[in-house]
């Protein structure tokens, strides 16, 4: 079997595995909503393209291609961040092939190459194609327009490989976040020095070379792409080998008993389990640390900068600060427990106590963003009533929405492995729908109430609504437990299949 045949066979296996996934048939309604959201994103990108074309046509100092490439750093930064929400590293299906007479290095190589040829990299053509039609085809000719589209697409592919390189390192240690931060800080350094023209001119020079098909520009692009692909091949193979060979850290760890939770009985035992799971399991620990770090950073940006001070974004970012932890961890409720769901189902109402413990722990984490957002009260950006209403609304209706995922989550989340586990690629579209609703529900509710009743009344209503949900949490958690138990055998079978 040559490499082309292996590539086609592995791609076919990936498509079949997606169709055979236990999550493929369970979320049809959510998939429809997701496709509608994707259509809106596409239309939004086309709208951005039209606006950029109008600005480029009215600008006489730069050609359209130079203007587009002058904004390239911003496109690349946005593309890099968006991929964290939608793209996983590719070497996730190597383990099933480890016993076959196929070199594992060849499998990893094919998965990396498939990430280059994936249709997901074509999303930015929604910007470049309309832009080229409106600005370049009739003024500079089809060849210049084609050169602009092709070169921009190659740069997006390079960016996808750069993302994969950085994401693989970050998966191993959160300390590697310093790498993309340093890279983008260096790229945008002229912007910090209030010399935006220097940043714009540096990248617009690239656009001129690509539009007129200068060979050195394209040779440099292809060399960059080849270098990133080769680096990713070696890195992915290295880390998949480590996980396949079960190379583990054998250092002794101190065992904490957390006896302060003994007074809470069985619920206290599950709170202990939640804390110990975060301490002992690599993936859960990294998710918790990353959520905490992003909460701190976003709180500092909101508290100490004047970014987005209009009414909509003031509400949006404050709401997002409070729901960030739940959006990253609570929305995946029961996924980690899928590793030992059989033991949880042994005794009656075990899972109900587990759900309560998770809710109490998640609510306690809201104290951190409240504390970090207090400077906005002192600077009169926000009122204490606004912060408390956001916190209690998040702990009430928003967390109630997130915890509904306990019924619908059916894929086991690996506790330590990242590259070779079967449940590594999540396919629960209900999670995405829940996240979108949670992000915009507080903003929409506050905007409507402020318009009709006034700002203080809107925050009081949110506060009261949150308190009602919190005080009645045993009722709706019991409802979640009953619905889970009705489909427990289906969920347990799915958890076992995705371990």
Shape: globular
Radius of gyration: 25 Å
Pattern of helices and strands:
HHHHHHHHHHHHHHHHHHHHHHHH
Q: In which range does the helix fraction lie?
A: over 70%
Average per-residue pLDDT, rounded, comes to: 78
| Number of E-type strands | 0
Query: Terminal Cα separation, in Å?
Result: 30 Å
Largest sheet: none
In terms of structural class, how would the helical and strand content be classed? Answer: mainly alpha
List unreliable stretches of 5+ residues.
Answer: 420-427
Strand content: under 5%
Q: Can you count the helices? A: 24
Give a verbal description of the structure:
- The protein is mainly α.
- It has 24 helices and no strands.
- The protein is globular, with a radius of gyration of 25 Å.
Short description:
This protein is mainly α and 499 residues long. It has helices at 3-20, 28-58, 64-70, 72-86, 104-116, 125-135, 142-172, 178-187, 189-192, 196-211, 215-244, 265-280, 282-304, 311-328, 341-344, 350-364, 367-372, 374-378, 384-403, 405-408, 429-453, 455-471, 473-486, 488-497. 73% of the residues lie in helices and 0% in strands.
């Amino acid at each position: 079997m040559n490499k082309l045949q292996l590539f086609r066979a592995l791609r076919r296996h990936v498509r079949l595995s997606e169709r055979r996934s236990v999550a493929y048939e369970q979320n049809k309604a959510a998939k429809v909503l997701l496709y509608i959201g994707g259509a809106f994103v596409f239309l939004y990108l086309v709208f951005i393209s039209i606006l950029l074309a109008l600005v480029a046509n009215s600008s006489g100092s730069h050609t359209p291609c130079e203007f587009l490439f002058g904004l390239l750093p911003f496109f690349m930064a946005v593309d890099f961040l968006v991929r964290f929400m939608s793209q996983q590293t590719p070497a996730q299906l190597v383990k099933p092939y480890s016993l076959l007479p196929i070199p594992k290095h060849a499998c990893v190589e094919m998965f990396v190459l498939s990430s280059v040829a994936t249709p997901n990299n074509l999303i930015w053509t929604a910007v470049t194609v309309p832009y080229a039609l409106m600005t370049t085809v009739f003024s500079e000719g089809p060849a210049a327009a084609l050169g602009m589209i092709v070169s921009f697409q190659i740069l997006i592919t390079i960016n996808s490989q750069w993302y994969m390189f950085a994401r693989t390192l970050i998966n191993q240690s959160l300390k590697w976040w310093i790498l993309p931060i340093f890279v983008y800080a260096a790229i945008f350094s002229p912007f910090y020095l209030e010399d935006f023209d220097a940043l714009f001119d540096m990248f617009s020079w690239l656009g001129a070379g690509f539009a007129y098909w200068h060979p050195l520009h394209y040779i440099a692009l292809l060399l960059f792409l080849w270098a990133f692909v080769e680096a990713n091949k070696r890195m992915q193979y290295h880390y998949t080998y480590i996980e396949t060979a079960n190379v583990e850290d054998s250092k002794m760890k101190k065992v904490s008993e957390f006896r302060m939770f003994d007074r809470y009985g069985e619920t206290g035992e599950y709170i202990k389990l939640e804390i110990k799971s975060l301490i002992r399991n690599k993936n859960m620990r990294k998710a918790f640390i990353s959520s905490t770090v992003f909460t701190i950073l976003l709180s500092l940006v909101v508290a100490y900068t004047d970014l987005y001070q209009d009414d909509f974004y003031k509400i949006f970012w404050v709401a997002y600060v409070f729901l960030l932890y739940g959006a990253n961890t609570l929305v995946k409720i029961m996924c980690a427990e899928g590793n030992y769901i059989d033991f949880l189902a042994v005794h009656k109402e075990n899972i109900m106590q587990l759900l309560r413990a998770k809710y109490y722990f998640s609510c306690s984490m809201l104290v951190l963003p409240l504390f970090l957002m207090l400077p906005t009260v002192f600077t009169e950006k926000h009122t204490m009533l606004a912060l408390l209403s956001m916190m209690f609304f998040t702990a009430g209706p928003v967390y109630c929405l997130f915890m509904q995922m306990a019924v619908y989550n059916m894929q086991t989340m690996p506790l330590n492995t990242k590259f070779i586990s079967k449940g590594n690629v999540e396919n629960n579209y209900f999670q995405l729908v829940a996240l979108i609703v949670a992000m915009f529900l507080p903003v929409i509710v506050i905007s409507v109430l402020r318009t009709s009743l006034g700002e203080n009344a809107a925050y009081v209503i949110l506060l009261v609504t949150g308190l009602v949900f919190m005080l009645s949490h045993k009722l709706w958690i019991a409802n979640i437990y009953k619905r889970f138990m009705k489909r427990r055998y289906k969920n347990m079978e799915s958890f076992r299949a995705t371990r």
